[in-house]
Amino acid sequence: MIMLENIRHPMGELTLEIGKLRIPPGLTLLVGANGAGKTTLLELLATLQLPRRGEILYRQRSAAEDLPLLRSQIGYVPAEIELYEEMKVYRLLAYLAELKGVYHRERIDALLSDFRLIPYRNHKIKLLSLGIRRRIALAQALLAAPYFLFLDEPLNAMDTAERKMAISYLSRYAGGRTVIAAVHEMNEWDEAADHVIWLNRGKIGFEGGTRRWNDELPLEVWEGLITREQFENCSQRNMIHFREMAEGIYVRLIGGNRPFPGLTLAEPTLEDAYFVRQYGRDSVVR
């Protein structure tokens, strides 16, 4: 459990303000528009910064009093990763493992396997794709099996297979631990996430379980094919997404009543709930 109390911290033109927040073990998605404070919050949680005001407790321990101990229990991957590009993958992980006090080569071998890095173990990092580098960054953050893991856009540059692999691993890893991932695309985490924190201009707009995230909105989501004429007359504010097809335009819309004949009710997703929260209930036609 992580507890935040009376946090105030500057972040550009805005201030991150959190009165009280409890983050339980499990996989938590941190969402919000660009500039909402996601990176600032992650940096505070990872102790890269200390809050100007307020306190953060990690299982009842304060960073102000137990910083070295807490940092040994924290893993962090920023959005912009920097690795020693001249080093080979295995050598880098072995070097970082020693810095973290991890001397069991079995741990490195396990992470190489888990993140499908074995074919690249003797490759220089500068020769690898951004997606593979992102997997290396995740692996190094996990070397000491941290209890707290903070990730800023962890799937950046990964292809579809890599993303599914990473989500599956993080979902399993979060059992009994606290993993917080700042993400832009929520739907791919639908089956994995336990909790959601929504930051809106530096303040907590929502925090709770994924079921509450969906259920607390009076959502009706409609999907199906419409004509191009209907599409042109459709309010873009209610449009979650659309795709042109030979027989018409497939749409996914939010509304209180059936917007067009032939559309059917769909189960709201995490992304649907975010759409309504971020862009306002007033955008939904009732």
TrEMBL record:
Species per Swiss-Prot/TrEMBL record: Paenibacillus faecis
Recorded family membership: Belongs to the ABC transporter superfamily.
GO molecular function, one term: ATP binding
Keywords: ATP-binding, Nucleotide-binding, Transport
Ranges of residues in domain ABC transporter: 1-226
Pfam families recorded: ABC_tran
Signal sequence annotation: none
Domain of life: Bacteria
Stored InterPro entries: AAA+_ATPase, ABC_transporter-like_ATP-bd, P-loop_NTPase
Protein name: ATP-binding cassette domain-containing protein
